[in-house]
Write a structure and sequence with these properties.
CATH superfamily of the largest domain: Dihydrodipicolinate Reductase, domain 2
CATH class of the largest domain: Alpha Beta
CATH architecture of the largest domain: 2-Layer Sandwich
Strand order of the largest sheet: 8-9-10-7-11-12-13-14
CATH topology of the largest domain: Dihydrodipicolinate Reductase, domain 2
Largest sheet: 8 strands, mixed
Shape: globular
Number of strands: 14
Radius of gyration: 20 Å
């Protein structure tokens, strides 16, 4: 294919404007060719304001455009399955926002479509592509902190608009689905295993979603993830990796910027590193996708390998939260 990778964007979500498009510009060799929305007016305005070549009404027109190589899907969670499968069946490469789907059953359907398609599918956990993550994996692999036994991980931010879709139960919102999924993906990646048990509790909002939650996932070998997420306090992604001989502290393992720190506490020393060079967290993942599109790299961290485990882990935690919700109702 041509060196310039052409993207179609399904929807005008804020994450597309604030994160995806700046990363696309930083990554280079790619074009935001078209964006779709419910009305042509919204799409055209978004395109004009954010450097997208054109805006169109609806999403199908993007999938029918043979010049579009890759599709980014930042739609509400309950629309991910429908449009991801449609994009795959149209022969597109797809980057879909997390969580890939609202349920395990939907995830299985989407991954079945991915296995039958020619276009690879990624769930938009971009941190596995970061140099910081590679550095953490190397430190753990070298035994710098001994055996990794426990992970403490948070993801909180303040959400002030009551109309935000994250507050919608119908659209599969809630703190766990929106940001609690990041510590879950981190633990699965670093432990290299799947959780077996879960306990969780939540603060429930008036709309019926968890606005704050905390919980524990138990992994084989008596290892555990302690996680906390929510919409009611300042931005916080601090994460501690606790080993038998030391610790690693990360100010932001999920969306690191150049100022974010990786601190190693082991062998009686404290060492601080700043492995992240890109300004935008999505950039490394987009560079990889572009290289795959040009036939220069083999796809890594595909949804078909990674996403069902996260869906099942979220199901474990959501089942515990559902019991908590019922107890509150009584």
């Amino acid at each position: 294919m041509a060196a310039l990778v052409r993207w179609g964007i399904l929807g005008t979500a804020n994450i597309a404007r604030a994160v995806f498009l700046p990363a696309l510009r930083e990554s280079g060799d790619a074009e935001a060719a078209v964006v779709g929305s419910r009305t042509a007016e919204i799409a055209e305005r978004f395109a004009a304001e954010n450097g997208v070549t054109r805006g169109v009404q609806g999403y199908q027109a993007i999938l029918d455009d043979a010049s579009v190589n890759v599709v980014y899907i930042p739609l509400p969670n309950t629309l991910h399955a429908e449009w991801t499968m449609a994009a795959l069946r149209a022969g597109k490469m797809v980057l879909c926002e997390k969580p890939l789907c609202a349920t395990v059953a939907e995830t299985e359907q989407v991954l079945a479509a991915a296995s039958e398609s020619q276009g690879p599918l990624w769930e938009a956990f971009v941190f596995p592509f970061h140099p910081q993550t590679a550095r953490v994996q190397a430190l753990i692999g070298e035994g710098v902190i001994g055996e990794l036994r426990e992970i403490h991980s948070t993801f909180h931010f303040r959400l002030t608009r009551p109309q935000n879709i994250r507050y919608s139960r119908v659209l599969a919102g809630g703190a766990l689905n929106d940001v609690g999924c990041y510590p879950v993906r981190t633990a699965r990646l670093l432990f290299g295993d799947e959780p077996e048990t879960a306990t969780a509790e939540a603060v429930w909002g008036s709309s019926g979603v968890d606005v704050e939650m905390c919980g524990m996932l138990g992994f084989p070998g008596e290892r555990r993830l302690l996680l906390s997420s929510g919409f009611r306090r300042q931005y916080d992604t601090f994460t501690r990796l606790l080993g038998t001989q030391g610790q690693i502290h990360l100010t932001n393992p999920f969306h690191p910027e150049p100022q974010d720190a990786l601190e190693i506490i082991a062998a009686g020393k404290r060492t601080i590193e700043h492995p992240t060079k890109d300004r935008v967290s999505f950039t490394a993942a987009l560079r990889h996708i572009h290289a795959v599109a040009r036939g220069e790299e083999t796809p890594r961290y595909l949804a078909i390998a990674d996403s069902i485990g996260n869906a099942r882990a979220l199901q474990l935690l959501n089942a515990s939260l559902a019991r908590d919700d019922q107890a509150v109702s009584r």
